[in-house]
Backbone:
């Protein structure tokens, strides 16, 4: 499988160099780490937001570093967790004395290493809260995961908590809105093709020419069902109904939706999915307040998409709609 | 080849519906056409900017409709030109009496149909200028093209001319800066895999497992050279040197660069390319003023990338850096 890379062992290192080369005024790499932070950390007068996890999900995580979202992110190897040392360096660099919120996707390595880092940081007197995102409604427990997996809904946690922090609220308030998003969001994805990791150079899993996987994880972990290829409308219905079953929303509820590309999916197809998604939500009596379409949390070169639905109230609408200025997400008001 | 579509005959229509469903406040579809325009056209007090071409290059074209960029865009079938009638409807809808600039990528069908539409509009008293973008340095003449092809540099024409129009300058000034970008920009791309059109469902061209195509067109048209797979750095050097040979810039020249994904390329790989690109430009004594990395002009699900270099002076820096607010490109100042 062909890739635009050099030595697979260098791919994360070179990607991070390429990110800093693209955004030298916005991103800074902590020496001898795979941690990227805002150029101006620590940013005084606000809670710092940090996250991280395996590489291969770009623009997650570093693409969301900047005004109104994250202060920094630790990048692990491809699909593998950053070390506790890297997470600790991240927390230390970003803390300005107003506390730190760690946003963790629910994978065992991320949770374990972030928790160790938090303990170490707290011993040094840093105030740290954490939330664990587990928005994937497809499966309970999975490869790498106890409980549900954290996937594309994580972006909305960055966005809402980032806006709350930018407004100067304290750590307990920033943590509260992060958890509020987690309590109100659900996601499910599908794969048309497997991802191919640089190291292996072969598909992570086998999928026939006439098969798709429903409920796929962002590392190619098994989903809920392998079926014959279906129309975009049928796939959209399957994913959306599973998410809505989980969220159990009342008719008239306002929502934000994301149609997220997995990395190898043309935008054309994402918009075809969005067409049916919005139609179906209307049939359920739900009111789309905002609709995002694009590549937000990918799985290398996987072809496929995920659908995220987040119930919003006035508070979340204000935060999710607030200005942000990051490499991957810029919003004006 | 699997795709998230329904009937291939409906894919453009359903994509456009999905776009309007995502951005109902920003985009409006002209009845009985495949033309999308700003929700508030005609926008008084400014020159209108219009473009269009075959579908399959998303977010080109409609993704750049909005404040500081385009007023509207006509979408043809996949990789086929919009009709003269559609281009005329686009011009008519966007003209507010201050004139219209048509930004045309250099493909025979686009040029012919846009020119016919412009003649018809002028007969109705609309003042229309046009520019033809031909930034692809790879080949003279090609399938669909006399002269060079128009590719990713087109986005910079939209951006600079859009900013000039937003500042209230007249048609001759808006046209001048559009042409100034064209005179200062070059692009070259590579394909690791063929694109697959919805209609055909098979690769447009054959490329071996250990081959790549240099100088590829955005419809899969042949490039300059088919070679064995190379490292990202070697590919970057090949593409960049060809662009720099064409532009013939002086040492110390300020430039804007784009590393553009072709649709099926993970962001990880684009940043690996950007790393070497910026290193190489430094070796040439060129000064990168701004670096864009992402999917700006794609070729459906093609894996590959293109590199664009645009020489900038104070005027172009002001325009290319000006605020914009569109689905695919948002800049704050």
Residues:
């Amino acid at each position: 499988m062909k890739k635009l890379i050099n030595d697979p062992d260098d791919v994360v290192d070179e990607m991070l160099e390429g990110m800093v080369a693209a955004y030298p005024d916005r991103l800074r790499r902590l020496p001898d780490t795979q941690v990227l932070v805002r150029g101006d950390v620590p940013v005084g007068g606000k809670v710092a937001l940090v996250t991280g996890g395996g590489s291969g999900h770009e623009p997650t995580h570093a693409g969301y570093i900047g005004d109104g979202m994250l202060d920094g992110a630790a990048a692990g190897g491809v699909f593998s967790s950053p070390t506790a040392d890297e997470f600790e360096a991240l927390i230390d660099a970003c803390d300005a004395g107003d506390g730190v919120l760690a946003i963790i996707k629910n994978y065992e390595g991320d949770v374990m290493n972030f928790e160790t880092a938090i303990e170490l940081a707290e011993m040094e007197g840093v105030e740290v809260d954490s939330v664990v995102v587990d928005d994937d409604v497809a499966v309970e427990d999975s490869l790498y995961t106890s409980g549900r997996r954290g996937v594309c809904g994580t972006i909305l946690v960055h966005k809402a908590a980032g806006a709350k922090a930018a407004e100067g609220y304290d750590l307990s308030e920033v943590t509260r809105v992060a958890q509020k998003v987690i309590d109100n969001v659900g996601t499910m994805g599908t794969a048309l093709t497997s991802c191919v990791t640089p190291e292996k150079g072969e598909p992570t899993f086998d999928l026939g020419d006439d098969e798709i996987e429903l409920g796929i994880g962002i590392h190619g972990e098994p989903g809920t069902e392998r079926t014959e290829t279906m129309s975009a409308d049928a796939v959209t219905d399957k994913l959306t109904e599973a998410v809505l079953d989980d969220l159990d929303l009342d008719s008239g509820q306002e929502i934000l939706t994301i149609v997220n590309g997995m990395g190898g999916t043309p935008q054309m197809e994402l918009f075809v999915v969005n067409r049916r998604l919005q139609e179906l939500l209307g049939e359920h009596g739900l009111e789309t307040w905002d609709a995002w379409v694009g590549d937000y949390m990918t799985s290398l070169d996987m072809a496929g998409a995920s659908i995220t639905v987040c119930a919003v109230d006035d508070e979340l609408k204000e935060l999710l709609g607030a200005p942000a200025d990051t490499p991957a997400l810029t919003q004006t008001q």
In short: The mean pLDDT of chain A is 97. The two ends of chain A are 43 Å apart (CA to CA).
